[in-house]
Design a protein that fits this description.
Chain lengths: 367, 329
Amino acid sequence: MYFDKFNALKNEKLQIMDNTGKILKPELMPKISDEDILTAYKLMCLSRRQDDFQNKVQRQGRMLSFLSSTGQEAAEVAYAMQIIKGKDWFSPAYRNNAAWLTAGIPMRNIMLYWCGNEMGAKTPEGINVLPVNIPIATQYSHATGLAFAEKYNKTGGVVLTTTGDGGSSEGEFYEAMNFAKLHEVPAIFIVENNQFAISTPRKKATKAINFAVKGIAVGMRNILVDGNDFFAVYGAVQEAIALARKGEGPSLIECETYRIGPHSSADDPKVYRDEDNHQEQIKNDPLIRLKAYLIAKKKWSEQEQTKLDAEQDQFIKDEFAWVEANNNVDLKDIFAYTYEEMPNFLAKQYEEAKAFFEAYPSKGGHH
Amino acid sequence: MAVLNNIQALTHALDLAMEKHQNVIVYGEDAGYEGGVFRATVGLQQKYGEERCFDAPIAEATLVGTAVGMAINGLKPVVEIQFEGFSYPIIQQLFTHVARMRNRSRGRFTCPMVIRMPMGGGIRALEHHSEAMEAMFAHNPGLKVVIPSTPFDTKGLLLAAVESPDPVLFLEPTKIYRAFKQDIPDEYYTLPIGEGYKVQEGTDVTIVTYGAQVGDCEKAIEHLKGEGKNISVDLIDLRTIQPWDREMVIESVKKTGRLIVVHEAVRSFSVAAEVIATVNEKSFEYLKAPCARVTGYDIIVPFDRGEHFHQPSVQKIVVKIKEVLDYQF
Ligand SMILES: Cc1ncc(C[n+]2csc(CCOP(=O)(O)OP(=O)(O)O)c2C)c(N)n1
């Protein structure tokens, strides 16, 4: 219904709701319950508030650099809420906070990870989400492989994966999609086009009219959607998943969105971003849009918002308190996972290290 | 003379290189407009234009693959890879073409280029931002590998790398990018690739190291002095890993009879392994103690919270020096 109607080569973009929350194309509204819309909105708020909180503690030196989803929550929540826990897979990038929360990763795990502790990267049982993927676009190949296995094993799951606009320049972006299309595997490839790769603007990443057309060369169904429009992303992903489950192969979805914050805490976007454009872009903030929609439908109110904000702030504070109380790494832990069975030589290195740190205890921390 | 830190020395050297050699092209992810993630190339685009200094798409394999073509066709690419941990996509081009083109074409085509990348840990970074993989690069014939430890060396070695007729991997320890400043001459100068530097002369033990660990070793020696131990150390900063200064090391070991190699890279199949093997071959009969090494363990580099266990600390070096000096056959 969506893929057929919007031609990325002509830069046609799927948009259902405008930036005041008004539904422009009711006939295109995806099938989703009011309850699910509200759940999605709350998750978007939670991720935004977590980003804000983490920015604050990061400046206090209590957290390492992290990559915030601020501005991209509509896209991330809309695709991640359609992942069936324990059946489908998500092969993420490193900027996916809202998607992780939605897919069921505990907030404390995410925080622990950005506090420099590997234990945060351990996905709880029952959820098929791969760990944070720092090397760009390599997660696309993993998605293809996961989906190949789903098809081979006839287990019926689908696989979602995402990368940034910059990531679409890596060879593996194409290589993985080509492989996926050849085998018609049940994978959904998402580009979260937030307009920047660190300081490099989207126009320096490609001369292509958009990122959706990058699917054409490999023969893949593709669509460009307004990534700040929750319903547009939800609809496109819903259709892509349905097609994948029916055995009709992979899809590429570009979500055109905007990175409201810096790339990471080490970065100052004022140096390279155009201030006027920035002011224009933030008018499309996906949270404002969905909130306006919900309020107009009398499904939400400012009073409920105030209450939710307070609840979420408390939750975030509690999670971080847990993290700070549990952020220890044992010497054994840094050795334990290199091999399934610790080889003899490494066991000896561990013994040597243990003896050393018993004789000269290390407070940890920094040099 | 100007007082510069390592990053400033880099920028200064790149500026001089671009001024002197019209064929030098500087590029990498974010390296143009904003001057790279560590600002090593800051100002160069503004000064030399977008054709000579530019932002490249995120595609490391192609960054180095294009450098092969440019270099064969008369340019001198200086490519920035954002972190050594992101050099893995370039391995294909590096090992199959960059390192071999001269040999493959029997000298008809060559790939002189400089590939710069931040390396090493101790900076509270995320996964893949703290690797020290110099041995992997050095293991592959045809490449030169340089790791400077001071602003003076950074400038002289970078300019030497630009002039090198062979490809050079220029690995920059991030931990010391801004750690200290040094007076360095304003003019263009080069330092020879392949020569070590004697940081201090001594007679009891030879310590061979490079990069960020040079400072750690100096602190360890200071610490021992503070304990009242009168230990005289011959401290060698290798400065270049391939080729490395075998003569300086062997001569030193013949004098001291004891050797410790210090680096943060993992232990097995490492630079330390190579240095110790060479010393055994060339000066075994002078040794008064087994050669020793202080290195990272053979594990995946831990995240920030566990990294202090892995890094060679001043304390680890102090203990190792005592052990080697106390050794009795
Ligand atoms: C292979 C690789 N090269 C370089 C980097 C360094 N790096 C981290 S983020 C980034 C920019 C990515 O931009 P984009 O793909 O648009 O994603 P965004 O961060 O905007 O979500 C780069 C180059 C990396 N992580 N992996």
